């Protein structure tokens, strides 16, 4: 199984939207896909149509009790796509893990078991705390959604430093799958400027596919559906399909340039 952490410590940049729609696109192309909701907000679980009342086992159980993925996953309405949901107790997990010796490797340990999935996408919370560190330690690569706005590059350099630290200390095999520009608005000149800056700094780490700002993408979660199912023809869904194709072409992931 290929494991991809969808991460950016900045909030509201499109991590969850990207995780849900890429997982859906991959499931639609026949990849047995697994989502792990590692954010106490549980947006990924809700957005895929799993209400909080339905969640029995969760990512909290993976991390704290080292429960098996097979015991914690639930099927979704999308054929070929399973999810390990998040529950509110995950917000306490970070504190509970602090005193645990293998605190950064908890997720990695449970993900070694074969569950029959081809790919696992981990939806990370907006922080660089122990939850995200567990995801980066468990992952083969990181996928970074980046919103085209003024402080984007500053936050990105902090994130890339964290990736390097994880490579040095916990997971030498962690690669960068790529950076995807999200909520792109071509009528906004600042958006264009930021996109150019990011591309000139990070070159081919940045995916060619760009996700436009599209209201259908933001409506879909309230229906408990990926945008790809809610309205597969909308520009946002089309962009995610294109990104999924590009992403498949990059697997196995490229390494961070030395
Ligand atoms: N391309 C887009 N166009 C319009 N709205 C979008 C787009 N991508 C995401 N959104 C909306 O923006 C909000 C933030 O997106 P999302 O939840 O995916 O970000 P996130 O990085 O996971 O946030 P958090 O850091 O809180 O977990 C959501 O309401 C989502 O529906
Ligand atoms: Mg999110």
UniProtKB/TrEMBL annotation:
One Pfam family it belongs to: AAA_31
All copies of domain AAA, residue ranges: 3-175
Domain of life: Bacteria
InterPro entries named in the record: AAA_dom, DNA_Partitioning_ATPase, P-loop_NTPase
UniProt cross-references to Gene3D superfamilies, sorted A to Z: P-loop containing nucleotide triphosphate hydrolases (3.40.50.300)
SUPFAM superfamilies according to UniProt: P-loop containing nucleoside triphosphate hydrolases
CDD domains: ParAB_family (cd02042)
Function of the protein: Involved in chromosome partition. Localize to both poles of the predivisional cell following completion of DNA replication.
The protein's name in its UniProt record: Chromosome partitioning protein ParA
Species the sequence originates in: Novosphingobium taihuense
Lineage: Bacteria, Pseudomonadati, Pseudomonadota, Alphaproteobacteria, Sphingomonadales
